[in-house]
Amino acid sequence: MSATATSNRLQEAVLEAAAYLYVWALKDIPQDLRDALADAAERETSVAGQRVLSTILKNVQVAEDESNLVCQDTGIAVYTCRVGEHFPLHPARIYEALRDGTARATLEHPLRSNAVHTITRENTGPNIGHRLPIVHWEFVPDWGGLDVKCVPKGSGSENMSFLKMCIPADGVKGIKQFVLESIVGAGGKPCPPGIVGVGIGGSADYAMYLAKEAIARPVGTRNPDPEVGKLEEELFTLLNETGIGPMGLGGDVTVLQCHVEHADTHMTLNPVAVNYQCWAARRASAHVAADGTIEFDREA
Amino acid sequence: MATHEVTFPVMDERAILELRAGDEVVVQGHIIGLRDRTQIRIFDQGVEPPMDLRGAFLLHTAPNVRKVGEGRYEKLCIGTTTSARMVRFTEPLGARYGVRAICGKGGFPDEAIEPMRRHGMVYFAIVGGAAALETTQIEEIEEVAWEELMPECLWKFRVRDFGPLTVGIDAHGTSLYHDVNEEAKKRLEGILARL
After folding, report:
1. Which of A59, A238, A279 sits opposite B133 (nearest CB)?
2. ipTM of the complex as predicted
3. For residue A122, what are the domain limits?
4. Which range of residues forms the domain containing residue B52?
5. Candidate from A71, A155, A244 with C-beta closest to B131
6. Which CATH number goes with the domain that contains B161?
7. What's the domain count of chain A?
8. Would you say residue A47 lies in a domain?
9. pLDDT tens, A206-222?
10. DSSP structure class, residue B126
11. Residue A297 to residue B81: CA distance in whole angstroms
């Protein structure tokens, strides 16, 4: 087969993977999240909170039984790609495939299209547009594969994103304070109980990217850096002491988890970013091999 | 905390006054779906809505639908959006149109409390994101107006056992959101003092 034919076939495989991942993520939430929600329902003692959590569990089951979307907000399609050094399709073509796959899924299912021009607010296409979908890249040496993770993010939770450029003297205490104040301020709006993603260090933009990376981790996984892992545990406990509760109606379970990602930073910087992920923390992954074989993985 | 079944539209205010913050409610009858742009058209652009809103239950939604004919739509997935963005319409919805209930997710800020008390209205909290279940409780899309605002049209749905909803703000001046927020702020002070 010619190089062009191979590349076309591979581009079609990535497109197919993207189209499948987008719809799948919206319908079938990962097991770790289901377990976390069931656990929350057991822990919750407030009447309104129990009502919310049992409705959520019922909804997850109905979505599965009826093959319907868990939530109507089909979100903004965000993909994370890990591209192997030897994967035989250029990232420019991978991007095209992800964009076309998003559009295909939107038109064929059909899904609600949320994409608009940011000033005119006119619809720009089937969940695609200028710089949409959003794709983050990571490149892996000595490898021939491609990992794609799709994280459709709804606006209810994305609107509850916060950034503060703390100063070094604020220390880790300033970080904790900002996270706590952000979540209390958000109240019921981001559909609690969800996953609080926190990004610390780096720069303003990178801190927010890290917060987004944090919400896409399987629920309850711990940052391998013990200092950061300890911060996750502490924030998780403190956030649940606020009493905001499921859907902000009051209760014991305000967050399912708190995940923190970090980067080293400038000696005079101390950025902290918060990105909320609602209880319907949708994500799905696929591995595309160099020969175009696709393996789907709901749990990654 | 009591459990109620209420059929909308509600023409007798007493049915609304019986509801207290924290109560559980299941809704029957007809509800009207609308969102930001629908209300901007009514109140900012001064266009009269082509549906009767007296006694109505309004749902903050922009549904996923499939067109099946002229002005006819089939439900695909119907869920509920964040209410806070639309709080400023509460007063005129009650005063001018006699709306009785607004349902959404995430709650209304305190500025909704007084208009709801004055006009005998309630805010119902639905479980945000639970759209698959909500869709099964909507029996039919009976009417749609302002299709050019798709999906933020004015929708009329017939529902069965819609809920469970929680009374978030009642017509007596009590708001769960206010109470929970005050309590959370107090707790936060204590937490911050321990850091």
Report:
1. A59
2. 0.94
3. 3-27+71-152+282-297
4. 3-194
5. A71
6. 3.20.130.10
7. 2
8. no
9. 999 999 999 999 998 99
10. P
11. 30
